[in-house]
């Protein structure tokens, strides 16, 4: 028996400046705040204990905010004390997450907004299936160097056989 496909709940990002990240992801990508920034400290409270279970001892203090996308996917932002940028922000050979993707049919317009807001375009806009499907993609970075991808069409349409062929 095939397992039932699960839905995606949220993604969590560690950022160096929570307020600037909220502004970027809100103003540029249109994500909206569902829980305002909150300070959490390493203590014996329920949330403090839960964070210690996840991060181990010594994480100290952090700020967290919860945003949501148009399709109700959670976007959790963390600002830890003493955070640091990775030496390689696209270490694709290292196991783990190395990007996420955002969909917008006006990919080029969104790309321009990202760059204008301090983000970076990592490559030219490319067509996935030139002459067959009108699908485009590009890798970008937010102002903090977090890498993500823009798709012009849904993941399912992009990779399914027969869509726009």
Task: Record keyword descriptors for this entry.
methylmalonyl-CoA epimerase activity, metal ion binding, 2 domains, 165 residues, 4 helices, single chain, four-stranded mixed β-sheet, lactoylglutathione lyase activity, Glyas_Fos-R_dOase_dom, 2,3-Dihydroxybiphenyl 1,2-Dioxygenase, domain 1, metal-binding, alpha+beta, five-stranded mixed β-sheet
Q: What features would you describe in this structure?
A:
This protein has four helices and nine strands. The relative contact order is 0.16. The protein starts with 9 loop residues before the first strand and ends in a 6-residue tail after the last helix. It has 165 residues and is of the alpha+beta class. The radius of gyration is 18 Å and the shape is globular. The chain has helices at 18-27, 46-55, 107-116, 155-159; strands at 10-14, 32-41, 61-68, 74-80, 101-103, 120-121, 126-127, 136-141, 147-151. The strands form two sheets. Strands 5, 6, 7, 8 and 9 form a five-stranded mixed sheet that branches. The protein has a four-stranded mixed sheet with strand order 1-4-3-2, with helices on one face. Residues 7-153 form the VOC domain.
Percentage of residues in helical conformation: 10-25%
How many structural domains does the protein architecture include? 2
Query: Unreliable stretches, pLDDT < 50, 5 or more residues?
Result: none
CA gyration radius, whole angstroms: 18 Å
CATH class of the largest domain: Alpha Beta
Mean pLDDT: 94
> Structural class, from helix and strand content?
alpha+beta
GO biological process, one term: L-methylmalonyl-CoA metabolic process
GO molecular function, one term: metal ion binding
Domain VOC: 7-153
Keywords: Lyase, Metal-binding
